[in-house]
Amino acid sequence: MENLWSKLSRRENEELNASTDITVTDRGTLSMLMQNINPEDQRPVLSLSHGDPGAFSSFRTRHIAEQAVVDALRSAKFNCYAPFVGILPARRAVADYLSRDLPYKLSPDDVYITSGCALAMEVILTVVASPGANILLPRPGFPNYEARCVFSHLEIRHYDLLPDNKWEVDLEAVVELTDENTVAVLPVNPGSPCGNVISYEHLKMRWAVTGWRLGWVVTCDPTGTLQQSN
């Protein structure tokens, strides 16, 4: 067994490592900063980089949501493995909710429920990846997108967000970067790390300029059946 382990390669994926340069959203950097706060300083510290509101007592989950999970557990109707796309009642609820603001009605078959954003990125990028394909990512952006694109062998092209214009997308750059091999343009809304919220007018203009249509609705709800059924 010792000889076997000595023969195994321990090389790292250098291409993947090179894609994850430190950015303002890098968790290692943020953790380092938080760990070096002077413990004797009594002033409160607000972690504006923390994306999970559940970590703070001021964002307590509503009682009605907690009770829904309890009811689902006691019903014994959801003590099983969920379909990998999400259970039908959950997908129907998401489709109905999103259809309220659309000129057309979504079907439950248009919804794919994933366990968090990381899995949503993996599913979508795996579907669109093909030899010679490229994808447009925002700059500044979130490093996980780039790492996942490299893993799927997608060529990455960056379009800029304009700081003097509320971090809106540079649409001219998007048009210039797009070609017949562009399989997706990634809009992050609300934006990370800039915190920008794209206006409806600007978002509509972006899709009109690039000629893209949204094909799937991907939600980041947990895939556990109990959580889906509440």
Automatic annotation (TrEMBL):
It holds the Pfam family Aminotran_1_2. The lineage of its organism: Eukaryota, Viridiplantae, Streptophyta, Embryophyta, Tracheophyta. This is Aminotransferase class I/classII large domain-containing protein. GO terms for molecular function: L-tyrosine-2-oxoglutarate transaminase activity; pyridoxal phosphate binding. One of its GO terms (biological process) is L-tyrosine catabolic process. Residues 45-204 form the Aminotransferase class I/classII large domain.
